[in-house]
Amino acid sequence: MASLKKALLPTQTTFLISKRFRGKINIQKPRKPHFERQLLIDLSKPFYGPPKHTIPDITLCDRGEKRFAKEIDNPFERILANECLNWFNTSKMVIFLHVNSISMEDKFPVFAALTKNNMHLRCYGKKIVSMATTGTRYEAVNHLFTSHQNILFGQPENIAKMFKIMKKAPQLVIMAGIIQDRLMSKNELVEYSQMQNIDTARSQLCAVLDSAGSHLVRQLQQGQQTLVAHLDKHVELQNTPASEPKDSAQKEPESST
Known about the structure:
Layout: H1 2-7, H2 35-43, H3 57-60, H4 75-90, E1 93-99, H5 104-116, E2 120-124, H6 126-133, E3 149-154, H7 159-166, E4 172-179, E5 183-185, H8 186-193, H9 198-239, H10 244-256
Antiparallel strand pairs: 1-3, 1-4, 2-3, 4-5
Protein name: Large ribosomal subunit protein uL10m
Keywords: Ribonucleoprotein, Ribosomal protein
Subunit structure: Component of the mitochondrial ribosome large subunit (39S) which comprises a 16S rRNA and about 50 distinct proteins.
């Protein structure tokens, strides 16, 4: 045992043990703090007003101060509103998106693909859009906004590419859009994206008009052609000699023998 004590380091006991209180803490009647601490406690003490159900209604009435509060003019908001209105005026395709929870790692490839195809994704708040569209032909889109929302600006010929890119990010939900000053739902946008090119539609229209014109010309010329054919046949019958049928009748038995 003595050898074991020599091998292990003995623990050193302190001669003085500090204590915060020499005796027990009196919880029922604690000691009053000194002046500076009491001053700090009084300054940091929270103040709670009386409950609203105990206050009369006349006291709760704010006389319309909150309703008629004066709004502060923010120059930066006016700059953003002018930029938003400029996007509306210069873009023939405007798509309104509802954004669910999405990280920037998932959103950045979609943003890059849209920008590469000449489509621009912007985020504006309800107040900015209201300032930009109030008094214009786009004022009806204010009902689509509740908070910050993404808007896609581009040209109608890129709508098919837009739907292909949006499939990569299901968090971006298409709500509605404006195509050439016409407000469309999502189903109408899908039908518009499936339509053929304008040049193909024009060629088909020209073919239909050409076929209708040629058919009308044939109908107008049919009576004249029939009359000419009958007249030619009548002239041919008149110019044929009367003895020719008899000769032909005599030649038939010889050929038969």
